[in-house]
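Study both lines:
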Amino acid sequence: MKFVYPARLLNNADDEVIVSFRDLPWCHTSGADQVEALAEAEDALEEAIAGCINHNEAIPSPSEPLPGEFLVPLPAEMAAKAALTLVFRASGLTRVALAKRLGVDDKVVRRMLNPRHRTPVNRLNDALRVFGSQAILEVRETQLSR
C-alpha cells in the first residue's frame, strides 16, 4: 500500500493555484503558488483520509499519475493509520481481539484507529505486524522546494 496520490494543479483567474485529486474528487485546496498549494494539498489529503476512517468509508487507492500531475504523499502517521485501518477492517477482528494480541487495553487500540489521536508510528507498526504487514518509510526529494 502506497499512500501517495496524484494531484492536478490549475491556475485560476485570481492567480491562485487550485489542487484537486482524481482519487478523492471531494478533496480540493489552493495556494498562492505551486509550493504553497502542494503544502496545503498534504493537509487536505490528510483530512480527506481521516474523514474516510472516521466515517467508516473506503479509503481510495491512489492511481498512477498522469503526465503533468504532482504526487502528494499522505503524512507518515496518517499513512500508517490508514494502512492499519485497511488491514484491520479486512481481518474481521474486533478491537478487543487486536488489543489482546498486542497485549494492550482496548482503549489503546481505539486510539490507534482514531485518525485524530497522536500515535507513535512504531506502535502502529507493531499493530500492522499482527496482520503480517509493516510500515516502511521512503524518503524522496520533493518536486518543489520552499
